Amino acid sequence: MKILHIDSSIMGDASVSRQLSANIVKQLQQKYGAEAEIQHLDLAVQHIPHLSSQILMGQDAEQSALGEQLLQQYLDADVVVVGAAMYNFGLPSTLKAWIDRISVAGRTFKYTEQGAVGLAGEKKVYIASSRGGVYGDDSPVDYQEGLLKTVFNFTGVTDVEIIRAEGVNMGAEIKQQAMTAAQAQIQAI
Ligand SMILES: Cc1cc2nc3c(=O)[nH]c(=O)nc-3n(C[C@H](O)[C@H](O)[C@H](O)COP(=O)(O)O)c2cc1C
Questions:
Q1: Which atom of ligand 1 is found nearest the CA of 131?
Q2: Mutation test of ligand 1: which of 169, 174, 175, 176 has the most ligand atoms closer than 8 Å to its C-beta?
């Protein structure tokens, strides 16, 4: 059971999404015991450069190797746990840089006459979502959870569960309620 644990918050120990993603991984470890093989990709530490034409065209050997490593890591994972903070209505740009490396035609998706088909196989994705305000499930200004879900679906992964703590900058009481609700969701995994 390969578990890919990704974090992207810049807030270190004060991060809500890191706390949630770590608790999800702990829960999975309890569930799968010695079978659980965890790889942690910390995007605040490991810097993935933005795509450039050289990288895209395979003219940068070092970046091609990194891209292949990230892609294979994603393909190999049985479970992906993503700590995703909302930054300016979207994702941390480091997480977008990761998305740009794993969305590769012929590897994680392909186009057919019927449209796009995902190739990333059977996987479960948990999104540990944190946001300062409250947006709910279908806000037109939420480009964070929606983008992640779309990308995972596009690569063929339909089993995407969102564990969300929101309103975390709206006062201690609201934050506490949000954390308690998210933790209950984690306990039910
Ligand atoms: C650069 C930055 C941009 C943010 N933009 C938003 C935003 O657009 N909407 C929102 O509700 N909260 C926003 N927040 C608040 C964060 O979503 C909130 O603090 C969340 O807990 C961040 O995740 P983390 O605790 O894992 O770092 C922003 C915070 C930062 C640092």
A1: 17
A2: 169
pTM (whole model) above 0.70: yes
Rounded CA-CA distance 141/145 in Å is: 11
Most distant CA pair in the chain, distance: 52
From residue 113, how far is each of 139, 141, 143, 153 by CA, in Å?
A: 32, 32, 29, 18
Architecture in CATH of 2-187: 3-Layer(aba) Sandwich (3.40)
- Which residue's CA lies nearest to atom 10 of ligand 1? 132
- Is ligand 1 within 6 A of the CB of residue 90? no
Give residue-wise pLDDT tens across range 81-104: 999 999 999 999 999 999 999 999
For ligand 1, say whether the CB of 131 is within 6 Å of any of its atoms.
Answer: yes
Å from CA of 105 to ligand 1 middle: 32
16-29: pLDDT as tens digits: 999 999 999 999 99
